[in-house]
Amino acid sequence: MSRKTVRFTVKRAIKRVVKRVPRARRRTAWCSGWENGFRAGMSGGYHYGRCDAVMRSLPNDSVGRWDVRVMYVTSGKGVPYSPLDEAVIGALQGLVRELIVLKPTQDLKSAAVKMRPDIVLVLEGLIISGERIDELRAEGIRTAIWLTDDPYYTDLTAPLVKHYDVVFTLELACVEFYRRLGCGQVHYLPFCSNPAIFRPKRVSAQFRHDISFIGSAYWNRVAFFDQITPFLAARNTYIAGIWWERLRQYKKLSPKIALNNWMGAEETAAHYNGAKIVINLHRATDDPSYNFNSQRIGAVSPNPRTFEIAGCGTLLLTDVRSDITRFYTPGQEIVTYDSPSELMHKIDHYLHHEEERRFIALNALRRTMLEHTYPRRMAQMMRILFEGATG
């Protein structure tokens, strides 16, 4: 059904219902609310149907399977690391012959000596000392680590990486940094989207907003949002995260902010699905709030939020990191901005050009599901580890 046909159907349905309402009530808030709700429901259902069509059109091809035994050591932390652990575990279960999952507090050496895995893969790794990894390697067991917070925690990860056989980092700028430290195998492997959670889904009205941003108010974000506070305050906006009281005009925007709401992956995905536009603004690499990057290593790679927003079939408006074009084409699959004024202009443009907004979002959804899911990333890791492929 074309967009023009949908509009005609909605108008005709509204007219039929309104005619049944007494004339005295036709101009009441009830009638207006009913019309708005009906339009929103039809509009949301139409977009969800198109997302569903994209999902159904995806090829059902296998990403591969490896006859190996993998011992996976979780981060040992809660949100936001636990959803990453769940995504990696879920992907690996479909890719390898046997998956053994351990917490970092367990006896890794005894388990590894007994099970003799082909690889021990550690996520994040800050809870595990280098000496414990050396014990595994001394037993002839191969080890790898996937770093989750580069370049922000490089002061902490630099002493650890030399203890692993293979290092994976989600930040391209850190590859040479770790190689200079003496790591023989360093590969660029950015995070992605978990399609079991970040996918198109129907959500209730409480999650529906025109504009959404979910994340902590690092100082570069505060400085940016200070310049667009009146703009966001005048629109149907939702912001969630810690430190947003740092805004100069916090009281003006506070009705739109769920302060200190650190939400899980499912709730985050619901807000992404319910928004027409989701803003992404990467944190600065030198933010003093919570940062261990004394080397001032830069960042060129997109954050995980980039892939998760796109995976929900919602328009992503993101600031520019130079390597983002490796993953999405600006103007066709995502929309980028360079300044507060450009962001505001593009928000208003895409809110008033619904078909254009949804066309770009659907393109991003398709590419995300084809290229940027955890099964795809973990298959890439398996090819690097067991087939000698390059990152």
Automatic annotation (TrEMBL):
Q: Where is the Spore protein YkvP/CgeB glycosyl transferase-like domain?
A: 233-382
Q: What is this protein called?
A: Spore maturation protein cgeB
* Organism per entry: Paenibacillus tyrfis
Question: Per its UniProt record, what InterPro entries does this chain match?
Answer: YkvP/CgeB_Glyco_trans-like
